[in-house]
Q: What sequence folds into this?
């Protein structure tokens, strides 16, 4: 998909998909495919595989390849497949982008190098992302998630990178409206800004600070997320606020348990969650009860497959 | 003013007023009164004196009393006078609230103790604020400004304090939409949430997360701040976004220089700025030129007095 | 006392004295004098009044003056009286230094402005401290306590300030050996470095990174602190390590309860502790029991007065 | 090597070896072997391969295996080979430990999972390290490096892990003497504490808080590091302070440029440095000149091979 086409289609709600694991800690690629087929019957715009929520840092190179192969076959042509490709080295990141292209992804999501965070000056970051964008056969989305990486992407740096023809947007999971606002004001209108922070979907769409969202919460609560986005598109503030509350109430409870929580929530909705890979903790009995309760309150019943 | 009345009137845009100083580093109370009279001819809902932007931490006890006396005489009855009263000790804070009442303020703004920040557990914070609210003759607004204090006010704690009949709202300058959203969802509808973060005025009003704003930027750029608020009240998203851009462009430039910047901006608008008290740095020549330029671009001309 | 004399005498162990309060939250100046007289019979080199541990941020201007007056009369001529004089404004700090001189203090301890921490660039900090040193009738000790102020004093800035004839040393409570080491290497040998971190007394004296210590722990456990210092002066590493363990075991337990803990410990040692000023929490029953137990284990019995 | 033997031998100075890369960004395993042979003629106790300084996060699985194979052949039997084996998942970490055992390493160094740092409670961390220690054929050294991981290892957790028969010590690169002191006081005397912070070698050996050191600085400046350690072993404080200054002066300058600096320094000493892998920046001309100058001042000439 060309950089121009992807700029047109990067809108709406996209789940940052979990990667199901079996009780024996093996990749459950059959379960992943089943989830993708179920989600594909909704208005979700596409899917992010190998993101943070997809536990990419837990997967071997072989497992990462398998996720993309299985994902591509399960996702219909009308929906986007985004692939997380950030590695610590520039050369490793480019190899991952090439692998994603071979697997048929539509675009890649690239986080900064973050281990030696002190060395990541704006100039070093910019050189890294430009080298990746030059080497990647697929359009690149920057990925800012300082709560995990400790490396913020300053809006001024993002603005400079937005001039690269193969850098089409950003997933901003920093969750800081100030950063989102400044990024919006410093970048051209066709630079796609997708928030990764569930609490910002409504306010950022209202203020024109974002074009869409890539959300862990959309694994489990895609209906209210889609409802917020649709209401804001129609300018219906009151309806959007109601859907926002429903989305937030689910997200507050399930998100408290991290990936173990999203996986338990997915299971509760009749899809395939499985367990997080250790040392990430599982949702225990009490967590599962709370998750079931909040899903019931929000009328998010098990889907029929 | 009763707690009920104040809840009704705490809306709209309120500047966190600077305290002008002469070139000899003396309090310019005449200049302060002139500013208040000029601002009172606009739609601003009221004024915060002795806030952070008012350099309260730089003022002696005598100077603090003088600011309130002069302010009360300059502010018309139809506008609110809020007084910053946070001190490090509980007893000192209550004394400040009593002084503010004697001076004729309408409500007080109380920040947490913050020097021994490690000791400020939610329980200790709650006890402190409850003791202050019990002892204060005036309704209390909590004041959260962790960028200065290092002490965040967790929404759960705020929600518990909102049950106190004399605690009527919060000025949230943390600038974190997640915190604002959670505070809104955990507190009753008549608990007044005023954002102190200029970038959040539009998104927070849109999402229903705030009822108004107390802004340093409103010292200098009250027109676009009032325009954002008015447009959002009427549900005019496009007009609000235009005013927001104008407000942010001014705020980005002037705010870069801190209190020295707001004072220079005030001077450029024909009001009385004066200098910040050392060690706070003044806006230098280059800063003043940038400030003049951005005010010209935003068509914020000197007011006639 | 001249800057030269003070440089000679700033060595050894100095307690950062607590300020006793009565049950009615009034300053107990009689108790303070009693403590100072008891401590003066030991090898302590001097006393810091109006430091962080002295709750200076909780005291009114009148109370601060009273502490210095009472302190000066209780402290014998052979012991140093250091006065905490850091205020948020440059002019307020100079006034405090002048007051300390009138009260008969030997030197002042000055922390940086810290409320608007973002404005405190190295250049602004240096200008502030130089203005204070120019205006202070007494020799100045810099005071670095970033855990409370959020404003570190970079060793390079300290080195430049060490060139001022009226800046004689630093109390470094940051507790970071890297900072201490660099400060030592960048400053002249007669610049006095006193650590405020109890765990660093032994290692910093051993490595030549400090000349002495100003310690909250010395309110309660002056004997082991003096023993560490004396052993290191004689090069007796094994004896120093034994005293260090004893000092640390007391400090770990008592320090866990902050100023409430030091005051309870003082009471347990037969001196006058009283209560911390709210919102600082008191040591509760359980805390007092733990404190009594650790003092017993360390054989720190009540002193006879 | 048994856990008991390794406890005896984990002392002295161990470099955290850099991994040389060619100008084409390929692993220079021949250069690595040459360095190891040169260093093996000194009093260094052993070598850490695949540590942070070894750019392990930049290396593919194949490259990691090659480093261990080549390293084992170059290191004489009398010197320890420690292998960095921390991966994000528990199962990946155990696999790395098994690979290290097959390659002939003597012990492994394991950092915590750190991507989802919020989930790493003390209990989760302890379970992870225990599972790794159970599964590892080699004795385990914990590795604390919060400046890179954002996950501190609390001394209380370390103390509990020290009870595991296959966990023999810790490399503490946090550089916080308070943590080192508490770790020492909470663990048994045969638990080996190696500091990874160059400024702490002298003070920590003096205070008995460490048994030795694993240092990036020892790639380039092994002589003064060995001199500090030898002097402290003999109780010669003055000689240790002199060597410490020499070590720190080199470390301050070279370390400013990170891994690019250590590699340039290695080259200047006649060993094989090569370049860091992008996006890590190279030492530029100016940096190389500064590095050459400080090595000359410290009389650290090129070694003859």
A:
């Amino acid at each position: 998909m060309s950089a121009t086409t992807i700029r047109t289609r990067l809108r709406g709600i996209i789940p940052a998909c979990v990667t199901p694991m079996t009780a024996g800690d093996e990749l459950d690629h059959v379960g992943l495919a089943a989830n993708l087929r179920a989600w594909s019957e909704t208005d979700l715009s596409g899917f992010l595989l190998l993101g943070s929520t997809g536990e990419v840092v837990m997967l071997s190179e072989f497992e990462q390849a398998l996720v993309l192969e299985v994902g591509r076959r399960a996702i219909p042509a009308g929906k986007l497949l985004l692939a997380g490709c950030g590695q610590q080295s520039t050369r490793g990141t480019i190899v991952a982008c090439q692998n994603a292209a071979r697997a048929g992804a539509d675009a890649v999501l690239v986080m900064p190098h973050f281990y030696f965070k002190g060395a990541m000056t704006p100039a070093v970051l910019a050189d890294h992302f430009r080298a990746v964008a030059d080497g990647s056969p697929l359009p690149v989305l920057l990925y800012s998630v300082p709560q995990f990486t400790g490396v913020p992407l300053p809006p001024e740096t993002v603005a400079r990178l937005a001039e690269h023809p193969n850098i089409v947007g950003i997933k901003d999971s920093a969750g800081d409206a100030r950063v989102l606002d400044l990024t919006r004001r410093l970048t051209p209108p066709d630079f796609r800004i997708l928030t990764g922070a569930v609490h910002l979907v409504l306010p950022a769409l209202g203020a024109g600070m974002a074009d869409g969202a890539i959300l862990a919460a959309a694994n489990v609560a895609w209906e209210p997320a889609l409802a917020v986005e649709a209401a804001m598109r129609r300018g219906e503030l009151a309806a959007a606020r109601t859907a926002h509350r429903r989305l937030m109430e689910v997200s507050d409870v399930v998100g408290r348990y991290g990936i173990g929580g999203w996986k338990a929530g997915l299971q509760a909705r009749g899809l395939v969650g499985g367990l997080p890979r250790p040392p990430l903790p599982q949702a225990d009995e009490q967590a599962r009860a709370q998750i079931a309760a909040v899903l019931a309150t929000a009328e998010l019943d098990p889907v029929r497959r």
